[in-house]
Input
Amino acid sequence: MTRFSYLILVLALAALMILPACAKKEMTPIEDIEPAEDIAPPPPPPPVLEEVEEEPVVEVEPIVLEDIFFDYDKFSIKPEYKDILTMNAEILMDNPEVNLLVEGHCDERGTNEYNLSLGEKRAKAILDFYVAYGVSARRLSLVSYGEEKPFNRGHDENAWSMNRRAHMVLK
Output
């Protein structure tokens, strides 16, 4: 055997060994493969909410100032009402946004002119007390209704005593 023949024989054997490795593999038809289920992507995690502290609801109580009552034909403040007026003044000092109208009232005895004047003196006595306490005079005003707006429509001393008053109206 010549060298050339020997080389041909080695190449032929190598080709026989390499060719089966390159043979076409049998393919599985696509129809036989079960399609993968459509799997939806997992939902995103819920957003993390920061806990927000709710501010407590503060109930505001309405401001109420008590009325002051007077003796017959008088406009001086009776000692028993000074504590009430002091509490009213404190409320006014604590609420500087509130203005006050003091209404002066009288019972039905006396002329209209006299009762209007007496009602004004009663309202002025209350205003003077508040100003002396420290409430700004700019927040205060007065009006006299005389006997025009009775609290009690009776015609006896009980009704009259309820009508001789200074009524506080917040504005």
